[in-house]
Amino acid sequence: MATITWTLEAERWLKDIHEYIAADNPQAAAQTVQGIFDRAQLLRDFPEMGHRYWASSRNVRILLYSHYRITYLIAGDGAIEILGVFHGALDLARYEL
Q1: Among the CATH numbers 3.30.2310.20, 3.40.50.2000, 3.40.50.1170, 3.90.550.10, which is that of 4-94?
Q2: Rounded Cα distance, 71 and 24, in Å
Q3: Helix, strand, or coil here: 77?
Q4: DSSP state, 64?
Q5: Mutual angle of helices 8-22 and 26-41, in 10-degree steps
Q6: Where are the domains of the chain?
Q7: How many CB atoms within 10 Å of residue 81?
Q8: At 28, is the pLDDT very low, low, confident or very high (cuts 50, 70, 90)?
């Protein structure tokens, strides 16, 4: 079972997602953030379930949840590092993954 850590950047993305949705619907915001977190927890048992991100030389993968892309790195020791959570409309090429 892999360990999962969230980068500060990923935590900021989650907070921003929550704040944006909560402006209209606090309950939906909580459900969305919890759903993203729960989806990421599946990586403990299935670390390669996301597809490989073609634009990175590292083992960066993308796991989908609704309109969001959870980007993560599988380290050499098998640990999972959540790098960010991006809305599907964002161009990932603008970010260094």
Answers
A1: 3.30.2310.20
A2: 26
A3: coil
A4: E
A5: 150
A6: 4-94
A7: 16
A8: very high
